[in-house]
Fold each of these.
Amino acid sequence: MTVIVVSGTGTEIGKTVTTAAVAAAALAAGRSVAVLKPAQTGVAPGEAGDAQEVARLAGGGVTALELARFPEPLAPDTAARRAGMAQVRPCEVADAAGKLATEHDLVLVEGAGGLLVRLDDEGGTLADAARLLDAPVLVVASAGLGTLNTTALTAEALRARGVRQLGVAIGNWPAAPDLASRCNLADLPRSADAPLLGAVPQGAGSLEGAAFRAAAVGWLAPELGGTWDAASFTRREAPRER
């Protein structure tokens, strides 16, 4: 049994689709998978949340669990406080993931926003949950300008807390990448001091489930159950040095 925490350098950068790709690759290898969303914000009752979207894309009977759902699209601590609802604490995230891990080969814990977004008024974060679980963190980053700084800051925060970074995945690789995106293929691993483990293409989340599952292993490195090769991808996509 394995637990991987999926965080990001910000919001709306492809964490959910990347989580779904990892889940799909694991299912293709015959592993049982659960996805845990500690705090789902900005989704009304009855609407599909991120965990359900992972299950839709990855298929194969993924176990999807939310610990809490708050109606406003805000940081979890603020969303809970404004809704008059109980906040989610890192120990609760760790307990839930640990229980899922007793029944599944792989548990994916998908955070909300970035690594240090507050879950509760005591300042608990996803990083705290990862530390309690002794689980590695997969950092999902954007491709373009500005990503090196946010990736380096996330990596520094993980090191400061004694949490291992599994690597970096680009959550939304553009169909027509600009110069910054292409240069960042070589620069991201240096900023993160961790390997580049995948590049999920722009628009992947709009694919039908079967098409998504067929393609997912080609977006991820072997460390995540895929066939994607960072060196080959970088040689093909990165600009030539002058």
Note: Residues 154 and 160 are 10 Å apart (CA to CA).
Amino acid sequence: MSLGIVFLSEVFGTAMLTLLGCGVVANVALKGTKGNNGGFLMVTWGWGIAVFAGVYVAARSGAHLNPAVTLGLLINGKAEYAPGVSVDFASTLTYFGGEFLGAFLGAVVMWLAHKQHFDAEPEPASKLAVFSTGPAIRSTPWNLVTEIIGTFVLVFVILTFGGTPSGLGPLAVALLVVGIGVSLGGPTGYAINPARDLGPRVAHALLPIKGKGSSDWSYSWIPVVGPLVGGTLAGVVAAIVPIIVTAAA
């Protein structure tokens, strides 16, 4: 498979992810929408369905949709990122680029769909929350720990049971994301994906959103670094576990 196909697959898949995922947050958070005040459970299920759709769209590239997943596969020692896609420097950058661009584009389209409600919403914090995550209690070390743990669960389960998100299956990955959201998502909003947070945050900064306020760049590194650390740890542990089990047997 050519890297051009991989790039486009990840762009479209990750764009679908953030269009629907950020879209459900917009439906819950913005003034006057039909889903206003739908609650956190609505958000978690919406993100699960967003993942479900994104994995289907990006199935040809293995549907990483997430630099932490790509990094986990790299660290785990996989020979291929997807059938016919070797693990090397060029393919790694291709996945990262497609994921970040797709996340940005999906957020822009989401904004277009909710433009009038962004204009009507008086709270800048609610507008930013549609695009990117933020902590319930701001504490740098503990927010970082939460993102590491949540991403570890995501990538470890994918590596252990499916190899890639498309290998695990769209429904299984969707339910996994819902499970992480309802169990571990409360403290930070469970970015568990650097592209999902950074791409839309950049969109928030660049788009002409009425009364949008700050993009909270002082927090922005946590949903990038935390998931990358969590994905790395998951790649290492997923490689060690079979060795330990074999040795114990």
Note: DSSP finds eleven helices and two strands in the chain.
Amino acid sequence: MKNIIFYLLITTFTIGCKNKGIVYNDPIPKHDSLTIASKYVNEDRVINIWTPPNYSQTQDSLPVLYMPDGGTKEDFPHIANTLSKLIAANKIPPYILVGIENTQRGRDLCGPTRIEYDLSYIPNAGGANNFRDFIKNEVFVTIDKNYRTLDKKAIIGESLAGLFVVETFLLDNSMFDTYIAVDPSLWFNEAYLVKNFEALSKSNYNHQKKLWFAGSDAVDISKNTRALNNQLELSNKNLIWKYTDAPNEQHNTIFRATKEKAFIWALNN
């Protein structure tokens, strides 16, 4: 158990639950970068923005996909390249990608916890609400001011970022239209989000919200993603959702293995 959680807390590209030393040399696509001096997280934050080719060729406004772990040395390159491939193949509509580069990942992506075990790995946990306010009140405003955007937003995250996606879906559902959580660390805080999903979620989503999530072979993740799937199967909340159970994937392989099917299902109308 401890070894699994240790692997979850370090970057996906360096060590996974079973395979070590995986390094991806993804080409960094042409993109813009800007810095926001945030009053919500009390620091300067780097934001990376990728726009599809048709953005410069038309005057169309586009929906936006937001992503924690969005640095050029994090998940931004391979997600931007995947979007480009799928858009070119007409498998998804054009989206702008906004990546938020990490500074203190555990602080920003985790809510508060009093569980000693959690705090031994993430001693600065508890900043997720501030990070959400930063995205909602500063990142959204900056992107909408500088780019042609539609009022249609999606978010994707893996591992702790996936935990943040699920927590945002439950605590501030109006922020995004589509939520994609890959191998979310739902073990955090003794699986609080899973155990309290029914109480925290809305009674009726009126077919206006989409949730896609997936679980790998990591035991402390898969048991919770499956439990969440079971709850959704028994619920009648008019939520558009899909669960992908991927027991043949490890924590460090599932993002790349499932991202295309996630985008095709989640980003199409």
Note: The first helix runs from residue 2 to 8.
Amino acid sequence: MLFQPHPSNTAIVITDPQNDFMCPGGRGYHLTKDTIEKNNTIQNLELLMSTALNKGYQLFISPHYLYPHDYDWKFTGNEQKMLLGLGMYQMVNVYIPPSFGADFVHSFKPYIFDRRTVVSTPHKVASPQTNDLVYQLRQHRKEKTIIAGVLSNICVESHMRDLIENGFETAVVYDATAATSERDFQAAVTNYKAFASATWTTREAISHL
């Protein structure tokens, strides 16, 4: 059966739309710059979010924040070591504005700060198992998700897998993602096609909205 989104039951989920991996000056931008430029990731994300809001869809943002106490974790995987080592997504506390790297990409802010958009609590590793995204989706009666963001093979893929296993029909917009290498990006696309109900370009996605 074809994936058929509708504003009443479908959420647009964006993972980590923040400066550290997406913008010059971000602590991890040197790692993602090539795939961002190749995929036109920033422009594709803007097009996806603006079109979705204009058509009545709701955005759900799943950010990644790291607080000072997170740097005292006793065991981490390689991806977490990379983030901690680069000092990415830094937040002091919930009362102080985020660092440049943890802040949202400036051109995304009109969509993220739209009154309809839900910004979940931050995930700590890669999937929504460590935040309230699933709870928020269920509270808004969403049954389907369309996912984009960074990193392609880590947070985007982890969100896809977790949401599918939580019973959400899921599509991925692969050219609105970015990875630290072309190899990692292609590996992610292979897995999107294996698990997701649909794997679309941005143009394909907006044609279905």
Note: Residues 75 and 190 are 29 Å apart (CA to CA).
